[in-house]
Amino acid sequence: MVHLRRSLAAIMALGLIAPLAACGDDDAKPAFADPAATASTTPGASGAPVTESTSAAGGPVTLTITPAADKKNVPVSAEIGLKVSGGEVTSVTLTDAKGKAVAGKLREDGSSWVPAKPLKTKQTYAAKVVATGSDGQTTTANTTFTTMGAPARETGTGLYLFDGNTYGVAMPVVVEFNPGIKKADRAAVQKRMFVETSPSQPGTWSWTSSGTQAYYRAPDYWQTGTEMTVRIAVGGLPTGGGRHGDQDRSAKVKIGRKFEMKVDNASKKMTVLQEDKVVKTIPVSLGKKSTPSSSGHMVVMEKKAATVFDTTDTDGASGYRTDIEYAQRLTWSGQYIHSAPWSTGAQGRTNVSHGCVNVSPSNARWLFGKTLIGDPVTVKGTGDELEYGNGWTPWDVSWEKFKEGSAL
């Protein structure tokens, strides 16, 4: 096993982190609804949320919006907060100081209108919101506010999705934060992480204990052909400790065919299934007693046709440096599936590896040509359990347990 845990900065430098995208809530579709749009602005009473009401035959329509009129130093992640009774919001317009309209959408629950990208720093914006009662009477509320300057400290972010790519059915949405988000601040951040799937599938976010990563998954693997739109809208968002998110990140991706690898230590074999049908059985050699492989539900995180395993920096004189072909990463600590020509005699019989799943060169090449990032890999029977967070591990717990990690 290669003991390597890359920092966020190092991973980003290698291009493993792509721009971010979207959010969810427990078992809820975090989609947006498109409102109609109109124009113009007049500030309300300074220093308070703007409230307007209209009495009509159908009852009074009351509309309250935020930010408060003339509010200063508003984060560039600002949403137009909406509270309406006796009707519904039918129009939201946000314009910058030059009168240019800002794109955005209503949250599905109607609680706010979210700009499509962070606002600009030190700019004045004007919002106009129209609510309509059941009798057709309208109420309009207006406000202006000014955004803050560039924050002094930021939270670094990353998204392990590349726009336009196709992933395996177990691919979680993985978001990384540096430094990690503290528990008290996670709900606000989670509300700004949006995921939409087509066809629609329920899903939720779950945080690792350190708050450095959050995963989004469904109760079961994604359906083949799913299209996923993700926006991690944390650019300028207060993330705790005086920090703000460094930028928005987004991706639109697809989910490919169902392809699974199931490794059993008892038989020393890998069973490969495509669309739930066995397509190949491969002899393997797992970790020897002193360096056992981890058992658990993992995901192919990274693929390299050729690489070097080097443990001399961590293990000193007992370490090793070896050229490796067809390596597929399963954990941060260095568990891979890879070609091991030196152990072909042991494959299917005994465990001799440093923790990796050794396969023959021909089988490694065949697997490498079939797999996608996000394909599920299950290892069982080694006696060493996978540590949660050591790799993309959301499938290593039950759906009920996974949901407990949501901040909402």
TrEMBL record:
Pathway field: Cell wall biogenesis; peptidoglycan biosynthesis
Boundaries of every L,D-TPase catalytic domain copy: 259-380
The membrane-spanning stretches of this chain are none
Q: Where is the composition biased (Low complexity)?
A: 34-49
The alphabetized UniProt keywords are: Acyltransferase, Cell shape, Cell wall biogenesis/degradation, Peptidoglycan synthesis, Signal, Transferase
Pfam families per the UniProt record, alphabetical? Big_10, YkuD
CDD domains, from UniProt?
YkuD_like
PROSITE patterns, per database record? LD_TPASE
Protein name stated in the entry:
L,D-TPase catalytic domain-containing protein
- Tell me which species this is from: Actinoplanes campanulatus
